[in-house]
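User: Hello! I'm new to structural biology and keep hearing that structure can be predicted from sequence alone. Could you demonstrate with Hydroxymethylglutaryl-CoA synthase? Please show me the input and the output so I can see what each looks like.

Assistant: Of course. The first part below is the input, the amino acid sequence of Hydroxymethylglutaryl-CoA synthase. The second part is the output, the predicted structure written as tokens.
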Amino acid sequence: MTVAVGIDKLGFYTPGLYLDMTDLAHARGAEPNKYLIGIGQSKQAVIPPTQDVVTMAANAAEQILTPATKAEISMVLFGTESGIDNSKATAVYLAHLLGLPSNTRAVEIKQACYGATAGLQLAADFVRARPTAKVLVIGADIARYGLRSAGEVTQGGGAVAMLVTANPRILALDAISSYHTADVMDFWRPTYRTEALVDGKYSTNVYLDFFQQVWDDYQAQTHRTIADFSAFVFHLPFTKMGRKGLRQILPTATSAQQATLTAAFEASQADNREVGNLYTGSLYLSLLSLLRHGNLQGGERLGLFSYGSGAEGEFFSGTVQPTFQQGFDEDFLANQLADRQAVSVAEYEEIYRAQLPNDSRDVQLAVGQETAPYYLAGRQHEQRQYRQQ
């Protein structure tokens, strides 16, 4: 008998500050609806210097791991394009912060926004071969394009943590998926830059082309059609992008199916609209948003599209489990987003410039107001100083 494998638990963390997109539009001399409707974003997470991808990942993972579960983790796979070291993996820092066993495999995975999906698929294959294993998969990033840049409105940040096990509570993954890779320069960040370079229109076109290719190939492999799905979940660097992807395939559905899929998409983009771009975590925040706000039932099949510029895309699927609401803490997640504080554009710009400098200087960060369980206190002797409350 084949054992179901997939996502057992989901956690999400973003810092307690945000920038209202209407305020940003006014400051940049733009019509607010250009951001609110044209891009599809309402708020953008603002990342203080005391949070980086390691601490955000720890804050997300802490929501879903008990002391007993930590002792059972076999592997940590950390997808990010905001790594803090060209050699040492963010997963190693994370495993230490969380107090995971020393016989844990810990690896960082990089391919733009696709890294967490690579981690999820590797984790699923690992558990299929070892049904008692538990794997922690992370998607954590800070999206930075620069003040007053064309990509400024699609910044954001946060972390999603997934526990991958046999007999999962949330989503059982199908073994078949479709993937596509091509060497294209739609988005990249050379090692000498702290901010990404992007050809926005070109990247959107590549995203849509890759989605069509992997969706067509998936259908050819499985003989499933759009009628077999209750929802499609997209990587959302901004919410309008996924909407365009869904609209590519909606004409193949009946009118009733179109209405169901459109409503599900609206549910899946609700949290992303309030947070902004998570890069590797974006698809999985979309999934979490659908689980929280959608009208799902156990046994329904979801389709998921992952995309990482440069470029790699994958379409895969899974079945919602009847116990899916046991896999995340709804009250915590709702309160986390509701309790954030707005910052002015001037405060956002100051925080943006205050990130840990890209040099060897010792730095002591102001940590007196930090409320997250894990945070960055500064840097000494070229080593980041992580702390736990």
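User: So the tokens describe the shape?

Assistant: Right, they're a compact way of writing down the 3D structure. Reading them back into a model, for example: Residues 173-322 form a domain with the Peroxisomal Thiolase; Chain A, domain 1 fold (CATH 3.40.47.10).
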